[in-house]
Amino acid sequence: MRNNVISLPVINQLPHITHKMPSIVRNLANVLMLRLQISPSRSLVCIIGSGHEHSNQEAVETWLMTQFGIDGIEALSAPRDQLADALRAHLNNKLNNLED
Predict the structure, then answer these.
(1) 3-class SS letters over the chain
(2) I need a surface site. Which of 17, 18, 47, 55 has the fewest CB within 10 A?
(3) Residue 17 has pLDDT above 70, yes or no
(4) Residue 62 near residue 49, CB atoms below 8 Å
């Protein structure tokens, strides 16, 4: 019976490396979550994050950095309004594509 067993090498997976987000990104993500009434669960991680985030907060932070970068965020004249509109549009677009 042991002749049928195939030994596979063990692959050590590296833990997800999180980079500390700039405070402006963390704060804006928090504001966006409150404005758009996003729960602190993980429901948006696969939609707007990279899939490695531990919460919607981290997924929104990833989205902010991916879409705008720190320079783009700092250049916005009214970041809360502009980013809330952009995130709302992005989520609506993603959700509409899931229905197709």
Answers:
(1) CHHHCCCCCCCCCCCCCCCCCCHHHHHHHHHHHHHCCCCCCCCCHHHHCCCCCCCHHHHHHHHHHHHCHHHHHHHCCCHHHHHHHHHHHHHHHHHHHHHC
(2) 17
(3) no
(4) yes
Q: Report residue 93 as tokens.
A: 């677009």
pLDDT surpassing 60 at residue 15: no
80: nearest Cα among 20, 39, 15, 24: 24
What gap in Å lies between CA 77 and CA 61, rounded to an integer?
19
With contact defined as beta carbons under 8 Å apart, do 48 and 60 qualify? yes
The amino acid sitting at 29 is A
What pTM does this model have?
Answer: 0.76
Backbone angles phi, psi at 51, to 5 degrees: 100, -10
